[in-house]
Every structure is written in structure tokens, then in C-alpha cells.
């Protein structure tokens, strides 16, 4: 099911359903683009029609974060769980390993994607990886695109920061069967940024943990109350129709 949250159509797929869609796309050699949408992205898209188009033209938009799950429920739909970029990436590795996929990591500071590949390869040796850091110039971009094309990835994970990664994937179609914007996932896989402990994730306050660890996030996260308010307003308008 798809639910329109502030103009962005969010899918209510579970993690297992999202992984299944990816598996079918790789097996069937069909290209799909996936956005893991958080409240900041959805909020920003109201004031940026290019961003809204890039989000809404994706094949799958997952609810990345409890704020989006809450919004979907407020708007009357059922959704079981959030599907964040890093959780999705980690859920893909077992099937990627079983089916010997080729995965490309694009993004992160120099050295991070490489470390992430080393970490993941030790657990999933049947996956073939290639990588590039995410601080490249326009001139270097052509070489990177050639490197990706030559590698022929099944899955291209792009962690260039939102929303740049969403625009980048939309502007460069056909590089892989599955393209996913994954934010800071390579930092988490490489261990350069610690994720919140599982208990904190389960309490749905990972955003608070990240805010305390990375206080510069307050400006980004200050959008959250405005997002919540706008969703309540959307619900009010829907009910009064
Ligand atoms: N990043 C990048 N190139 C840039 C800017 C950022 O590769 O020019 C990477 C950065 O190193 C980090 C990620 O983008 O790994 C952060 O993305 P975002 O803020 O969307 O992720 P979040 O922390 O919200 O998951």
C-alpha cells in the first residue's frame, strides 16, 4: 500500500517485503530505485518540487524512521515497521551472499567505504564488492561512472548524503538493477559511527541518541516537530472532507 505523506507517496512494506522486491528485481534484471525517506526529506520536498519529483518517481519509498511510521498511521494506514537504510542494507547481505551478488558502495569519506567492504566481506565472502568514496569532483565523476559500469553491480548503494544521493541515482539510471540511497550507512558498517544500542532502537528513540552523540544534528532534527504538526494538519483536512 502507498500512503501520501505531505505529498510524498510512502510504501508500507515491511523489511522482509522490501528485501523480496529487491531480490525479484535482481533475479528478473529489472531496474528499480529505492528511497529510504525520513521526515527531513519529506518535509523539505514540500518546498522543493524537484526533490518531490525525485522521491515520487522512485519505485519504492520506505518509511525511514519512526516519524514517518507515525505519520502513515495518523493518515489511517497500517504499517508494521520502519525500513531504514542501514537496516535494509544489512538485511540484504544474507541473500546477496547466497546469490553471489555484486555490490558497489559509493559514498562516505575516503577510506570509509573500503573499511565497510572489509568488514562485510569477512561475514559474507561470496559477495563481490567494489567501492569509491563520496568526495569526488565533477571531473572525477565520469571515471567513477565508468568504474561502476565496468563492474556491473547488481546493487548500487549510494551514501552521498540526502538528498544529493537521491538526485544522483535519478540522474544516473541503469548503473545497477537496484539503486538505493543509504545516507551514512557506510560509516555504520565501517564502525566509524556507532549506531544506538538495540534497546534504544527498539524504544524508537534512536534519533535522540544520535542527537546527543552528534549535536550538530539539532538543526536538521528541528524539522521534526514541524513535520509532525503538518501531518496532523493533513489528517485534519482529510477528516473534514
Ligand atoms: N557524504 C559523501 N559526500 C559528500 C557529503 C556526504 O559521501 O559530499 C557522506 C558522508 O560521509 C556520510 C553520509 O554522506 O557518510 C551522510 O549522509 P546523511 O547525512 O544523509 O546520512 P544520515 O547520517 O542521515 O544517515
Topology:
Blueprint: E1 2-5, E2 8-11, H1 15-28, E3 32-37, H2 39-45, H3 49-56, E4 60-63, H4 66-74, H5 85-98, E5 102-107, H6 112-123, E6 128-132, H7 138-151, E7 155-159, H8 164-171, E8 178-181, H9 185-190, H10 198-202, H11 206-213, H12 218-221, H13 223-239
Parallel strand pairs: 3-4, 3-8, 5-6, 5-7, 7-8
Antiparallel strand pairs: 1-2
Helix pairs in contact: 1-5, 2-3, 2-13
Please characterize this protein's 3D structure:
This protein is α/β, with parallel strands linked by helices. The protein has one domain (2-240). The chain contains 13 helices and 8 strands. It has helices spanning 15-28, 39-45, 49-56, 66-74, 85-98, 112-123, 138-151, 164-171, 185-190, 198-202, 206-213, 218-221, 223-239; strands at 2-5, 8-11, 32-37, 60-63, 102-107, 128-132, 155-159, 178-181. It has a 6-stranded parallel beta sheet, sandwiched between helices. A two-stranded antiparallel ribbon has the order 1-2. The two termini are 22 Å apart. The model has no long low-confidence stretch (mean pLDDT 96). Uridine-5'-diphosphate binds at residues 107-109, 134-135, 159-162, 183-184, 186-187.
Amino acid at each position: 500500500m502507498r500512503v501520501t505523506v505531505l505529498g510524498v507517496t510512502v510504501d508500507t512494506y515491511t523489511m522482509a517485503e522490501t528485501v523480496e522486491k529487491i531480490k525479484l528485481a535482481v533475479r528478473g534484471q529489472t531496474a528499480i530505485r529505492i528511497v529510504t525517506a525520513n521526515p527531513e526529506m519529506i518535509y523539505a520536498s514540500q518546498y522543493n518540487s524537484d526533490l518531490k519529483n525525485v522521491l515520487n518517481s522512485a519505485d519504492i519509498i520506505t518509511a525511514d524512521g519512526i516519524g514517518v511510521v507515525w505519520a502513515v498511521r495518523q493518515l489511517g494506514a497500517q504499517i508494521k515497521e520502519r525500513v531504514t537504510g542501514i537496516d535494509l542494507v544489512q538485511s540484504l547481505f544474507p541473500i546477496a551472499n547466497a546469490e553471489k551478488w555484486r555490490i558497489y558502495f559509493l559514498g562516505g569519506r575516503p577510506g570509509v567505504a573500503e573499511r565497510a567492504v572489509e568488514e562485510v566481506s569477512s561475514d559474507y565472502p561470496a559477495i563481490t564488492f567494489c567501492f569509491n568514496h563520496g568526495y569526488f569532483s565533477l571531473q572525477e565523476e565520469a571515471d567513477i561512472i565508468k568504474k561502476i559500469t565496468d563492474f556491473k553491480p547488481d546493487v548500487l548503494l549510494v551514501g552521498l548524503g540526502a538528498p544529493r544521493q537521491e538526485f544522483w541515482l535519478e540522474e544516473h539510471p541503469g548503473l545497477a538493477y537496484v539503486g538505493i540511497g543509504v545516507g551514512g550507512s557506510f560509516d555504520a558498517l565501517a564502525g566509524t559511527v556507532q549506531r544506538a544500542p538495540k534497546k534504544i532502537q527498539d524504544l524508537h528513540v534512536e534519533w535522540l541518541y544520535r542527537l546527543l552523540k552528534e549535536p550538530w544534528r539539532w538543526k536538521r532534527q528541528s524539522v521534526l516537530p514541524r513535520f509532525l504538526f503538518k501531518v496532523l494538519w493533513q489528517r485534519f483536512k482529510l477528516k473534514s472532507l
